[in-house]
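Researcher: Here's a chain I'd like modeled. Treat it as a single chain, no partners, no ligands.
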Amino acid sequence: MKRIGVTGHRNIPSEVLDHIRSALRAALCGHGGALEALSSLAAGADQLFADIALECGAELTVVIPSGDYERGFADAGELAQYRRLKERATQEVRMGFEHSTDEAYYAAGAYIADNCDRLLAVWDGRPARGRGGTGDIVNYALDAGKPVTVIWCEGVERA
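Model: Modeled as a single isolated chain. Structure tokens:
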């Protein structure tokens, strides 16, 4: 079984959303064979990836950074989507952190990078805004020798 993980931004500019959806579909639906998708189900790229992976018939593994992770969802719709996707997961992995911190997010991202064959990064190429952000996880995966596919449109910056 092939394992594909995700790291990515929570806020995706509307002008790149269609491109990102298409690239995720191509990576997740066009691989052939059984697929496990690893995601923390954060708002934005993680949820989009998980939703498309399930549409493509993948088994979903959810990596939860902390015991209070749900409190980090400020938007009720994003929390509802998180819960809906989590219910459809085949496997759930919990990091040993009680509270959502940068260290918890980094640990979850590192777990995903360590346990996938390929990492998809919905990333504008800029440094992480906090430890455990997309840029940190991309660098971690590259340092570990994991193949990383960056999905973004050149010249577009996130807010």
